[in-house]
Amino acid sequence: MLLATGGPWFRRKARLGEAGIAGVELALALPMLILLMVGGFDFGRAIYEQNRLAAAAQAGVQYATESSSNWTSTSNIVAAARNDAGDTTNSLTVATGECTCPSGTNLCSAASTCTASAVAGTYVRVSVSESYSTLMNYPFMTSPITLTGQSTVRVQ
Hints:
By secondary structure, this protein is α+β, with helices and mostly antiparallel strands. It has one domain. Helices cover 44% and strands 20% of the residues. It has three helices and three strands; from the N terminus they run αααβββ. It has helices at residues 8-17, 19-64, 74-85; strands at 93-101, 121-132, 145-154. It has a three-stranded antiparallel beta sheet. α2 packs antiparallel against α3.
């Protein structure tokens, strides 16, 4: 009588038949979850590198502001930026420039290094860039990409 009415044995057998469905669902969802995790890690790493380059440019500018003799010390400014970034292999491209805007015009005498300065004075700009390769190829982005950090300060 117990078997005819669908007792405990029948219910247990039905649950055992559904046990493999969870494994199939996991197998179907796992590739998408892995892609999302790798993509999140990849973009998080790119943001971290971008912040590292911005901090390196700021360190170069900070060195330039320590004394008036440091404004034109390009090699020391570059060294300060590289040291802050922890660049032991010289993989960073560091460019520095100084310009003076005597009349407060929008372009300094060296337009390629200092632009859009509305206040008259002497400016030091440090730009740091690095090639960054992503872990995966994304259809909306070509790899490697160039990440940059830049800082400008009025020193006088």
